[in-house]
Amino acid sequence: MNHDSSLPRRLLSTTRAKAAAVAVAVITAAAAGVGLAANAGAATSVASPFSFALVPSTGITACLPHAAGRATITPGSLNDTMKVSVSGMPANTGFDLFVIQEPAKPFGVSWYQTDIQAGSAGTGSATVRGVFNKETFSVSAGGTVTFSPTHQYHLGLWFNDPTVPFNLGCEPGATTPIITPFNGEQNAGIQVLNTAEFPVNAGPLSHVS
Predict the structure, then answer these.
(1) Are residues 82 and 167 in the same domain?
(2) With contact defined as beta carbons under 8 Å apart, do 32 and 134 qualify?
(3) Distance of CA 24 to CAs 29, 30, 88, 96, Å?
(4) What's the predicted TM-score (pTM) here?
(5) Which of 85, 101, 121, 143 could form a disulfide with 109 if both were Cys (CB 3.0 to 4.6 A apart)?
(6) Any idea what the CATH number is for the domain that residue 138 is in?
(7) What's the number of domains the chain is made of?
(8) How does pLDDT run across 145-204, given as a tens digit for each residue?
């Protein structure tokens, strides 16, 4: 019987080639996985939380000398979380929070967010989710009202009950409570806090990416 002495060498060579191919495939797959993980991390990365004050609206310090508020926006991958806290308010009083175009009158385009209830100590808070950053805007392309894309970068807080600020003396010279549309029934009181410490066209939401 004849024996081909080169056969073991050919088998060994083939085995080594297959092993090398497998190793290359494993390394390539691992590298691709690292790349995908890095890309996924980049896609879901978010900016740091941004905090800012809400200050008393014009004339409010005369009737509520300690009125104050603070908001923190925490960006997310798809939307944001905003927590608003208030203090120095009348006890057991309801308020309405809006995202608004301008911090003071005439306020511009306004978007109702949530109620905030102050408890017995005059403090309260609420947390809402939505888009609260430099891309926040409203638009009406048609219908009963038409307007182009309009950014809203400010916050405003209103008394839910118009008789509360009237009875507190927040409306000097008024003979009846001032009624505004800033609650769910469109019969709110006057504004109590806003973000007027920021420029009209560069409200705090414009600083959130």
Answers:
(1) yes
(2) no
(3) 9, 10, 67, 62
(4) 0.78
(5) 101
(6) 2.60.40
(7) 2
(8) 999 999 999 999 999 999 999 999 999 999 999 999 999 999 999 999 999 999 999 999
